[in-house]
Amino acid sequence: QLQLVESGGGLVQPGGSLRLACEASGSTLNNYIISWFRQAPGKEREGVSCITTIRSITNFADSVRGRFTISRDNAKNTVYLQMNNLKPEDTATYYCAAEGPVFSYLCNYSQQYRYWGQGTQVTVSS
After folding, report:
1. Are 45 and 15 within 8 A, CB to CB?
2. Alpha-carbon distance 79 to 85, whole Å?
3. Mean pLDDT of 34-50
4. Neighbour count for residue 80 (Cβ, 10 Å)
5. pLDDT-based confidence at residue 28 (cuts at 50, 70, 90)
6. What is the predicted pLDDT for the residue at 68?
7. What percent of the chain has pLDDT over 90?
8. Nearest in space to 41 (alpha carbons), one of 119, 110, 126, 96
């Protein structure tokens, strides 16, 4: 059974950076499509970024494209979300989610994700 644990959240000033980590146990993460979602109080959950299992193709929401990157470290069984030039509107609880094992060039935020982490809080404020 795949288990996911997020870390790396915190309080940062506008324009700052954070790197979130999604560490897996129980299975090999590189066989799973991984997405990062976020949810702010009173708002719908939003897909932020995802990464495929074949060639690690990445997708980003328009709101974060050019500021966020997603990557895999297979040796650490971890997926990272690097967040640069953070804005107050990025404030939310961030969750990683996984689906698989699957071998795919595609990922999206509306597909089923059976495995979820507990979330990590990101607050962007001066």
Report:
1. no
2. 20
3. 97
4. 21
5. very high
6. 98
7. 97
8. 119
* DSSP string for 96-121: EEEE-S---S---SSS---EE---EE
Tokens of 59: 């997708």
Q: Residue with structure tokens 């324009």?
A: 15
Contact 79, 29 (CB under 8 A): yes
Report the distance separating Cα 26 and Cα 77, nearest Å. Answer: 10
Q: Are 21 and 35 in contact (CB under 8 A)?
A: no
What is the rounded distance in angstroms from the CA atom of residue 79 to the CA atom of residue 48? 14
Q: Which two tokens stand for residue 103?
A: 């071998």
